[in-house]
C-alpha cells in the first residue's frame, strides 16, 4: 500500500464529528483544547475540508484527559456505531459476498478519508485465521490510545455485520501502551498483546468467509440507479465496461466523443491511468468471483476479458502476491447456486 509523506498527514474533517459530539455532551472546553493543539474547529462542518491528522488525534487525547475518561474513544464508537453495510458508505459495500471483501472495500474507502490509513489483512501462518492490521499513523513515538480504542471497536462492529452482534475476537494487539491499562468491561475476555508494533484483530477464516447481512438485498433496479447516479464517476463507468467486456480505451474515448489523446489527458487530470484503473477493477472483481462463486479459473478469466488464463493469473499475482488458486484456497466459501 502506498504510504503518505511523513511530514503531511491529512484527514477529512467530518471524521471528527463523533468525537466532537461526545465532547460537547460532556461539556469539555472544546475551543480551548482545539486552539491548544492547532485544530481548526470551523473546518469540521465542511464535509470536504481537510485538517492535519496529528492535531485531530491530539484533540481527542486531550479531551479524554480533561474528562478523565480512559475509555473516551470506545464510548464514541459505541454511541456512533456501524450498524449496517450501507452505513459504511456506498452502494458497492452491499455487493461484497464475504466479510473479507467487505473489509477490503472498507480499506479502500478510508484511504479517501485519511492519508495515514495503512490497513491490511495478514494471514496467520500458524492458525486458520487472519489479522486485521492498522499501522500507527505517526509511529510508535506518538501513541493515540483513544483513537486506537475507537478503531478497535469499529473493526469489531464491522465484523459483527457478518458474524453476529455478540462476536468478539479471541486476540487483539495494542501498540499505544506497552503495559496493561484500563480496558472497557466488554473486552474483559479478550487476550491482549500489549506493546505491539501495530493494532491487530484476529479473525478466523470461517468468519471472513461469512456473508455480511444487508438491510436490503441488492436489486437490478438499485444497480441501475447506482450507475445512473454515479455516471460522472469514472471508476463506476469503467467498472460497468469491464463487466460488459468492453475494455478498449479507444471505444471509451469515442463514447465520450473525444479523441484518444484528449481522453487520456482528461484521465490524467483526475490522477487516473486507464490501464491501471481497469486492472484494479479486474482484480477486485476476480476476488468477488473467487470468494463468492464456484467458477473455474478459465471462466473467471473469460468473464474479465483476458485473452488467456495465464494473463489473468499473472495480473492477479502481481497485484496480490498470491495466485488466484492460493487466494481461493485460503478460505472455505459456501458455493452459490
Order of adjacent strands in the largest pleated sheet: 3-4-7-5-6
Which residues form runs of ≥5 with pLDDT under 50?
A: 1-7, 216-232, 333-337
Q: What characterizes the major β-sheet? A: 5 strands, mixed
Q: What percentage of amino acids are in beta strands?
A: 5-15%
Spell out the helices and strands N to C.
EHHEHHHEEHEEEHHHHHHHHH
Structural class call reads alpha+beta
Tell me the name of the CATH class of the largest domain. Alpha Beta
- What proportion of the residues is helical, as a percent range? 40-55%
End-to-end CA span: 35 Å
CATH fold assignment of the largest domain = H-NOX domain
- From the coordinates shown, what is the CATH architecture of the largest domain? Alpha-Beta Complex
Compute the CA-based radius of gyration: 22 Å
Q: Count of helical segments?
A: 15
Total discrete domains = 2
Question: Can you put this structure into words, describing what you see?
Answer:
- By secondary structure, this protein is α+β, with helices and mostly antiparallel strands.
- It folds into 2 domains: 10-208, Alpha-Beta Complex (H-NOX domain); 220-329, Homeodomain-like (Arc Repressor Mutant, subunit A, Orthogonal Bundle), CATH 1.10.10.60.
- 47% of the residues lie in helices and 9% in strands.
- The protein contains 15 helices and 7 strands.
- The protein has helices at residues 17-25, 30-37, 53-67, 72-79, 99-111, 145-163, 205-208, 220-229, 234-244, 249-255, 260-269, 274-292, 297-303, 309-320, 324-329, and strands at residues 10-12, 50-52, 119-123, 129-134, 171-174, 191-194, 199-204.
- The strands form 2 sheets. A 5-stranded mixed beta sheet has the order 3-4-7-5-6. A two-stranded antiparallel ribbon has the order 1-2.
- Strand 3 (119-123) and strand 4 form a beta hairpin.
- Helix 4 runs parallel beside helix 6, helix 9 crosses helix 12 (274-292) and helix 10 (249-255) crosses helix 11.
- The protein is globular and about 60 Å long.
- The two termini are 35 Å apart.
- 32% of the residues are buried.
- The model is unreliable at 1-7, 216-232 and 333-337 (pLDDT under 50).
